Amino acid sequence: METILRRNTRAVKIGTVTIGGGHAVAIQSMTNTRTTSLTETESQIKELAEAGCELVRLAIPDRESVDAFAKLASKSSVPLIADIHFDAELAHMVLDSGAAKIRINPGNIGGPRKLESIAEHAGKLSIPIRIGVNAGSMEKSLLKKYGGATADALVESALGYLEVLESCGFFDTVVSLKASDVYTTIRACRIFAGKNNYPLHTGITEAGPSYSGLIKGSIGVGALLADGIGDTVRISLTAPPVEEVRAAQHILQALGLRHFHPDIISCPTCGRCSIDLLSLVNEVEKLLRNYHLPLKIAVMGCMVNGPGEAREADIGISAGQKHGIVFRHGEVIRTVDLNDLLPSLKEELDLEARYHGNSGQEE
Prior knowledge:
Strand order of the largest sheet: 8-7-6-5-4-3-10-9
CATH architecture of the largest domain: Alpha-Beta Barrel
Number of strands: 15
Strand content: 15-25%
CATH class of the largest domain: Alpha Beta
Order of helices and strands: EEEHEHEHEHEHHEHEHEHEHEEEEH
Structural class: alpha/beta
């Protein structure tokens, strides 16, 4: 199996998580509760962490949110990132309130002097900054120069802000270049990646609802990751944040960059299918979330696709007209009642878990 050669970037430590420098691509998301709603936000942070989110970002629109952030950060099991727009003073306040990193958009933070002040403060506390350059808030001079929020404009904007930070001796920086247009984002990140070694946060901003947003995110983030570009990812969706985490896991695993759960192979179905395969696949997907094994699992709707065409699967189940089969690497190991396909698969997974030296299931 071929592996992706990742871009060599400097390491940046965000609380207990390090990105860049050859470390695993980190998964992040953002809460969609009001930060001041402590119970709801704490619950969502916990849900995200349990789903595998490694960095969680919170909106900080006002001073009350800073106070809430401090309380939440003191209880969180994962590093929390403060998202700041428009008000540089909020950035200073949250730096003293437990932020593992702050994300600012220099295009709306108030100019170079305020950016320098934030960098000096963050540097004293060894807290990294993400420079988030978005197509929707570009400098007017660059929009005029390039005729719009082009990839080149995004890159020039980011490089300009990096010069400001570097002039202050601040290099603990993560950069993102985002547009809702997929190709603009891809091209901007590729150009930027060829000019320096700062780690990149990758994603498609304002990607949209679950289905279309997932397609945009998969194409944009997936293309960059396949190029070896990207040190942390967020798959932005107008959906519950935990869906962003699952999407990121699937993309990273599909590219062989990380492993979370067994892979599923399933047929697209046809007139030969003798069971409700969609429901069975959904049940198998839920089951596999409890296992952390390097396996490929096949779920087939007829004897044509399984086991012969799914012989690369470590374990597979397939339905016939009157019964089902369980197979390993194309070899049938037992015949079962159709209603016993899922329990039989679980038995095989449990055997694999014991073979690998643990339960294979989350506690």
